[in-house]
Amino acid sequence: MILLFEHPDCLHRLVQELDTALPAIDEPITHSKVMDLPYLNAVLYESLRLRTPISTALPRITPPEGAVLCNYFVPGGVNIALYAISTSTSNYDRPKVFDPDRWLVSPELVSEMKKAHMAFSMGPRVCIGKNLAWLKMRMTLASLLRTFTFELVPGQNLQPTLRSVLRPMDSKLLVTASKRAV
């Protein structure tokens, strides 16, 4: 939500996509209705890329002989920092810019970017709840934006600070919510 508030054009575009997909404001939102919405998925991929759930390191280290990740050799004994991978120019063009459109390109380019998208880890240690998390993220964001309009409470410092997770400097997000008209 913070990234959408910081980029109102993206928020507006997402609300438009949801309004088109779900024309009646009181229409029940189901996962089957929102799971393939391109811009919704692009916003979620981009948000997870810039605000990874665990930002500092994964609870594993490369094997002693090293490993090849994204076509790069990583020496043995290295902690893998998701934020560094997610904001590397080796993996993404303009990596510190919130740009959901980067995920709306050719399937080949998206496939390459997904190789560096490790919000839920990868391989045999991928998060067991990944699919449920995607379902919940889609349903929650779609439900919130179809039901309410939001305004930020002024005077907040929303710049991310790196602790064990990225969160706003003030450690909170204050908004006012107004129910959308039926």
From TrEMBL:
Pfam families: p450
GO molecular function per UniProt: heme binding; iron ion binding; monooxygenase activity; oxidoreductase activity, acting on paired donors, with incorporation or reduction of molecular oxygen
Signal sequence, renumbered to the chain: none
Record bears the keyword Iron: yes
Cofactor: heme
Keyword Metal-binding annotated: yes
Record keywords: Heme, Iron, Metal-binding, Monooxygenase, Oxidoreductase
Protein origin, superkingdom: Eukaryota
Binding residues for heme: C127
Assigned protein family: Belongs to the cytochrome P450 family.
Protein name: Cytochrome P450
Species of origin: Thamnocephalis sphaerospora
